Amino acid sequence: MIFQINNLRSLTVLACLIPLVGLVLDIGLDNLGSNPIQALHIRLGDWALRFLWITLAITPIQTITKWRGMTEYRQLFGLYAFFYASLHLLAYIFIDHALMWKMIGIDIIESSYIWFGLLAYIIIFLLAISSPKSAKKRLGKSWKKLHRFIYFAAGAAMIHYFWQLKGNLAEPLFYLILICMLLGFRAMVWFKNRQLSVMMIPKARKLIDESSDD
Amino acid sequence: MIIHTHKNIPSSEITDPLVFKQRRDIIKAMAAIMLTGSSIRSVWAENSKPIWPKIAKSEFSNQDLTSTPSELVKNYTNYYEFSFNKEDSTKLAQNLQIDPWSVEISGEVEKPGTFHLEDILQQLSLEEYIYRFRCVEAWSMVVPWIGFSLRDLLHIVKPLSSAKFVRFTSVYQPDSMPNQGKNAMLAWPYVEGLRIDEATHPLTILATGMYGDKLPKQNGAPLRLVVPWKYGFKSIKAIVKIELLKRPPISSWNKFAPNEYGFYANVNPDVAHPRWSQNSERLLGSGFFTARRQTELFNGYGEQVASLYNDMDLRHFF
Fold first, then answer.
1. Distance CA B258, CA B264 (A)
2. Tens of pLDDT along B193-213?
3. What is the 3-state secondary structure of chain A?
4. Which of A103, A153, B92, B308 has the fewest C-beta atoms lying within 10 Å of its C-beta?
């Protein structure tokens, strides 16, 4: 055994590369259909989106299972979302557009769905470079604020997906429902906490008032 | 009360149609081998021999273009009646019933009627037309269609001077076309339209074949429109009705999203789709790391068709 099986983190790191290996195999075996460039491009975009969704699923799972220590996995999946999104962008520039910068420029200016893809990528890029512990320490309180932008990245990625299609909205709808559930869960928790604090605050005040009377 | 007039056959005794067909095919192949002494491979090869291997080339055919490999063209079709997935359409389209086939031609014509496809094909001479095909989704291919000029067909029914537009209607077969049965997305059957001068332009053809052979079902068999200077969705498949009209018809895509898909839908790199650029296209069959093709105005057929749109604002009439 090259690596220890009980090392769940190493296994996860390797498992996240399976989609890339599958893609390379499909290129080699000519399995990508009549428009392999587009198929490859879509495949990379799909995996960037999936890893972003997995990243956003970690907090709800942690809350439900009360299993601590998933934070490092959240970082790992987030970095893989960045990894696949970067390959998606590189494929657009090198494989599809063969570095024809004028064509790329016109395409970006005229394609509103790409604006949202780029917006999502810029956010994910900022989150990725600020993800190391040292950066987290340096940014202090603003780190959490910055990393809340992942919700905007998810929204932009969703629009990017919807706006490039002519019809067939079944697949993006599936991801839209998932993200609504993941964000809805957070809204529920936030609302519950607020209710609790509203209920708790008067009681606490009363206690303080009573004690100050003494 | 149910009255049984004949003995029920238990389902276990009924041969699966697929198995039945396989048995028949095996018997046929064995008979052929016994009669001709040839191998199974050659029996199958005989079935796939093209019908028109050496057909005359039309004077409008782009002889200088290299045709896209046929396998790519056969497995990449937008045929939403079957599926929103291009590869799935290939498989599902095989359920389409195309034999016999007739086309109704009516409206502003002197001699309306319903014509058997075989009769039409006997009256008109087939030619090969190698044309560029540009999809609104920004991919393209080069296809050697086999067909005849639409103008020649309309000549038979004699359009009246009141005929200003043409409406084409696709087949309605909800039993074999799943998305028609589900009323999915577009209003079915699929409808497209042309102005009469576009319809009678010599580049406009009705195709019944490609690559020297019959049109595959997924590519629009048995009869489809091909208008090479317009986006692919104008080139309606499996046509059953052609009507000549006084007023412009409303096409399926135009009805679905009028701000995105106009009546004209002329290929134009300078008029973007509201959500994506039409400036360049991916030519099917081109390799990784090769540039996209710069899209041409009227898909490169400007010399022949630009005069149809003189004094028209192509941005407004998109």
1. 12
2. 999 999 999 999 999 999 999
3. CCCCCCCHHHHHHHHCCHHHHHHHHHHHCCCCCCCHHHHHHHHHHHHHHHHHHHHHHHHHHHHHHCCCCCHHHHHHHHHHHHHHHHHHHHHHHHHHCCCCHHHHHHHHHHCHHHHHHHHHHHHHHHHHHCCCHHHHHHHCHHHHHHHCCHHHHHHHHHHHHHHCCCCCCHHHHHHHHHHHHHHHHHHHHHHHHHHHHHHHHHHHHHHHHHHHHC
4. B308
The pLDDT tens digits for B52-96 are: 988 999 999 999 999 999 999 999 999 999 999 999 999 999 999
Domain boundaries, position A149: 8-165
Q: What angle do CA B50, B51, B55 make, to 5 degrees?
A: 100
A83 occurs within a structural domain: yes
Domain assignment of residue A211, yes or no:
no
Please check whether residue B27 touches A, CB under 8 A: no
Q: Is residue A180 part of a domain?
A: no
Nearest chain A CA: its distance from B141 CA (Å):
10
Residue pair A72/A58 in contact (Cβ under 8 Å)? The answer is: no
Task: Compute the nearest-CA separation of B295 from chain A (Å).
Answer: 11
User: Which class for B184: exposed (0-12), middle (13-18), buried (19 or more C-beta within 10 A)?
Assistant: middle
Cis upstream peptide for B189 (omega within 30°): yes
Sorted by where each begins, the domain ranges of chain B are 18-45, 70-307
A-chain residues within 8 Å CB-CB of B87?
33
Residue A157, in any domain of the structure? yes
ipTM beyond 0.90? no
- Which one is predicted more confidently, A214 or A23? A23
Q: Is the pLDDT of residue B34 over 80?
A: no
- The whole model's pTM is what? 0.85
Query: Looking at the 3D structure of chain A, how many domains does it have?
Result: 1
Mean pLDDT over B174-195 rounds to: 96
Angle between helices A71-90 and A18-28 (to 10 degrees): 30
In the CATH scheme, what is the homologous superfamily, with its name and number, of domain B70-307? Answer: Oxidoreductase, molybdopterin-binding domain (3.90.420.10)
Residue A92 phi, psi dihedral angles, 5° rounding = -60, -45
- Is the preceding peptide bond at B100 cis, omega within 30 degrees of 0? yes
